[in-house]
Amino acid sequence: MTIRTAADVDVLVVGAGITGIYQLYRAREAGFSVQLLEAGSGVGGTWFWNRYPGAQFDSESYTYGYLFSKELFDEWEWQEHFAHQPDIERYLNHVVDRFDLRRHIRFDARVTSAAFDESSSTWTVVLGDGSRVRARYLVAATGVLSVPYFPDVPGREDFGGEQHHTGLWSVAPVDFAGKRVAVVGTGSSGVQIVPVIAGEVASLTVYQRSANWCTPLNNAPISPEEQAELRADFEALCETLNTSASGFLHLPHDRATSDDPVDARQAFFEKMWNSPGFTKLTSNYTDLLFDAAANAEWCEFIAEKIRSIVDDPDTAEQLTPKDHRYGEKRPPFVTGYYEAFNQPNVSLVDLRETPILRVTEAGIETADGVRELDMIVWATGFDFGTGALLRMGIRGRGGLALEDHWADGPTTFLGVQTTGFPNFFFPGGPHAAAGNNPRYNGYQVDFITDTLVEARDRGCDVIEVDPAAEERWTSMVDQWAEMPPSFGEKSYYFGTNIPGKPRRYLLNAGGRPKFLKEVDRVRRTDYQAFRLSRSVEPAPTPAPR
Ligand SMILES: Cc1cc2nc3c(=O)[nH]c(=O)nc-3n(C[C@H](O)[C@H](O)[C@H](O)COP(=O)(O)OP(=O)(O)OC[C@H]3O[C@@H](n4cnc5c(N)ncnc54)[C@H](O)[C@@H]3O)c2cc1C
User: What single DSSP character describes residue 494?
Assistant: First the structure.
């Protein structure tokens, strides 16, 4: 059965990141007409905007890429276990061309408003250039880390040199040679860029608000033997990824800290330190995130590593976190970060001791005076979770603004829909999961697509979540967020990095197992979590454009 009413397209997707591209693919495959709107001028989302030197995966490349096509998996050779941004951007462009999706994508198309028309049950979407698209279904795959955040520092606009945000990096090459550069922020992006540019710049001042527990990424090229193994083991790889709690290949450990004597614990920690990426979180001792003493022992191991790498004891001390345990914030992974502070041209400013007072035309002023600079790199993160959705001018039933509906933080069903906004979906948005993102967002896209097909099969074209289902899911998400091993107050997962943002957990701490269990329940209960109905009036036939 085809969709009954006229609109420009059945499905309008916003965002050409890994989630939106997959939604475009799946909806087309299911027989819907689809258009994708992207604010940027190219494909990639995160991997289009974050093109700063050193930007790379913390997920293993082959676990992050799409798994829906064995042919795609076989023909694309990742060069590194943790690919860098140019390779990731190339991959996503390859996917778009490989599956002939580019002709459905409109670039430089920022959505400025989207309103639900109750009589026709369609969405009218307005773009920055004033043009409009009417769609039956609106799927905002606008990302959780797609609105860069600049701290409210006085005088930022007065600075006479260059300024860049890591999440809004220029497509034109940025020249660091011989410049006096500041990197503000030591989260995942800041710690990636510092070691890469340290050797090029005249001086590099790193402004740190809070130190993070950084451990080595341990990246390496993928050898020809490993390439062959990956292809031979594709089915097993999918099986592990699709059943793992966080979407990684790393298997959980089977021992708690206290199961091992002290010597064995040190040897195990050493093994963790030398293991790839997120292994340190997913495959560490089972009590790491539950037992304060176990966590403190691992933290002391890292602190000792920092002291052994960084020559200056005061700098080593400043680089050692004091305000949170390991895993309470998303841990960054590094290559040569601590080592960079041994270069004579690299220095650290601890903003807890000497906060930034203002940016001046010449540089950055702290209580210690002005440091003259040619360039400031803001590695200060994002308005996480809801940032993009709340800036899209989304209006649901009765003109309800999403900003008002979510004034106290997001409420959702499965992180895909919210009441009062029929036919509107947001995979990879609030209440998505931490972990290897595509291995969660992809399931959301599959679920949304299946729901669209289910509605179509029943002759329905209005899909709206049942308020009771949303309430149940949201209260579970809020409860899981407070249960151990919860992320702490300091984590941007609670939105606390943005002044004035309500403190509410923005992901699904229950992870994939809880999500998949609920999806299964929706299917078993015949989609009762949704109200599926027929629109009252057909949408007007679109005027020729
Ligand atoms: C530096 C960095 C490294 C990361 N590393 C990892 C990693 O190793 N592993 C991992 O799992 N995750 C990682 N992430 C998280 C990453 O965001 C996700 O993995 C994934 O890229 C999200 O994809 P997405 O398609 O959902 O959103 P995005 O990739 O953010 O794409 C959203 C797109 O929507 C567009 N958009 C937003 N609003 C509008 C609008 N109003 N109109 C039109 N277009 C709009 C944006 O321009 C953007 O292109 C990283 C994030 C960053 C910033």
Answer: G
What is the Cα–Cα distance from 51 to 270, expressed in whole angstroms? 32
**Span 424-451, average pLDDT:** 94
Q: Tell whether the model's pLDDT for residue 317 goes beyond 50.
A: yes
Burial class (CB in 10 A: 0-12, 13-18, 19+), 264: exposed
Is residue 545 pLDDT above 50, yes or no?
no
d(CA 108, CA 355): 38
Residue 527 corresponds to which tokens in the numbers above? 């989609």
Name the residue of 85, 145, 149, 403 whose CB sits within 8 Å of the most ligand 1 atoms, as the mutation to test its pocket.
Answer: 145
DSSP secondary structure, 400-441, as one string: -BHHHHTTTS---BTTTB-TT-TTEE-TTSTTB-SSSTHHHH
pTM of the model: 0.96
Ligand 1 centroid distance, CA of 46 (Å): 4
Phi then psi for 530, rounded to 5 degrees?
-115, 150
Instruction: Check: CB of residue 385 under 8 Å from CB of residue 98.
Output: no
Q: Which of 108, 102, 138, 101 is nearest to 123 (CA)?
A: 138
Distance of alpha carbon 489 from the chain centroid: 19
Lateral strand order in the sheet of 375-378: 162-165, 375-378, 180-184, 203-208, 346-350
Dmax of the chain from CA atoms? 75
Q: Is 89 in the pocket of ligand 1 (CB under 6 A)?
A: no
User: Letter for the amino acid at 43?
Assistant: V
The closest alpha carbon to 425, from 22, 155, 105, belongs to 22
Ligand 1 nearest atom to the CA of residue 55, by list position:
1
The residue type found at 225 is E
* Rounded distance between C-alpha atoms, residue 407 and residue 370, angstroms: 39
3-state secondary structure of 180: strand
DSSP state of 541: P
Rounded distance, CA 131 to CA 108, Å? 12
Residues contacting 226, CB < 8 A, separation 6+: none
pLDDT tens-digit map of 325-362: 998 888 999 999 999 999 999 999 999 999 999 999 99
Return the percentage of the chain with pLDDT > 70, whole number.
96
C-alpha span between 227 and 167 (Å, rounded): 31
Task: Assign 5 a pLDDT band (cuts: 50, 70, 90).
Answer: low
- CA dist 283 → 262, 275, 278, 286 (Å): 18, 10, 8, 8
Atom of ligand 1 nearest to the CA of 432: 26
CA atoms within 13 A on the CB side of 365: 13
